[in-house]
Amino acid sequence: MYLTIDRGNSRTKVGIFNEERNLIHSGILSNDAVNDLRDLVVKYDVEHMIISTTGKIDWDVKDLRLKGKVIELSHETRLPIEIIYSTPTTLGRDRIAAACGAQALYPNQNCLIVDAGTCITLDLLLKKGVYLGGNISPGIHMRLIAMHDQTERLPLVEPGFPELAFGDSTLHALQNGACLGAIMEIEGTLNRAKEAYGAVSVVITGGDSALLAKELETPIFVEPELVIHGLFQILSLNVQISS
């Protein structure tokens, strides 16, 4: 069995894959991550593990006592895709994993990968398996919080789509600026990608993916587990190479 761990800015997701390459369990870790992971390792007889983290982990991987391959994803990890990025050491691990997931789930397609989490990342993967890079901007909640915190009078509002081209109140203006603005950003980036590379599929993941997906005026694939699918592809490749 294979264990994948995606430790992001606000939560830690795990996935368990079997030898048939099927995702058989996914979930969110509690604050007691080590004991949660120990339970998963025992329950599913986990042998191999990969972890992607935005920072330092506060537990020791050795405590899990795994018998097989253990990888902490980095710019030096062997990947199933080619990375063309001028600063690979600063490239987010979640962006790498999401691209690997898109390649596996949507092979031979140009993909615009949208990760709508704390930040919104828009990354382009060409159908020949080449990751070109992309853009990073504030996520929905970050936009709303920033407009409240950095001004004296603007209120903190919940995300929403008032279905108005121009907000008719401060509430609607803020929601449009954050949410409709994100939609226009995604669609504008998609149009540029299509102009340069032809047909492009949109794959969206992240905590705000459901919120944004229903408003996008283009066919999309919603993949809540895109990153852990990508982590499995990376782990599986490295297990095969070392065996």
Topology of helices and strands:
Layout: E1 2-7, E2 12-17, E3 23-28, H1 33-44, E4 48-53, E5 70-72, E6 82-83, H2 93-105, E7 111-116, E8 119-126, E9 130-138, H3 140-149, H4 170-197, E10 201-205, H5 209-213, E11 220-222, H6 226-242
Parallel strand pairs: 1-4, 4-5, 6-9, 7-10, 10-11
Antiparallel strand pairs: 1-2, 2-3, 7-8, 8-9
Write a structural description:
The structure is a single chain. This protein is an alpha/beta fold. The chain is 35% helix and 25% strand. It has 6 helices and 11 strands. It has helices at 33-44, 93-105, 140-149, 170-197, 209-213, 226-242, and strands at residues 2-7, 12-17, 23-28, 48-53, 70-72, 82-83, 111-116, 119-126, 130-138, 201-205, 220-222. It has a 6-stranded mixed beta sheet with strand order 6-9-8-7-10-11, with helices on both faces. Strands 3-2-1-4-5 form a 5-stranded mixed beta sheet, with helices on both faces. A hairpin with a 2-residue loop joins β7 and β8 (119-126). α2 crosses α6 and α3 (140-149) packs across α4 (170-197). It is globular. The model has no long low-confidence stretch (mean pLDDT 92).
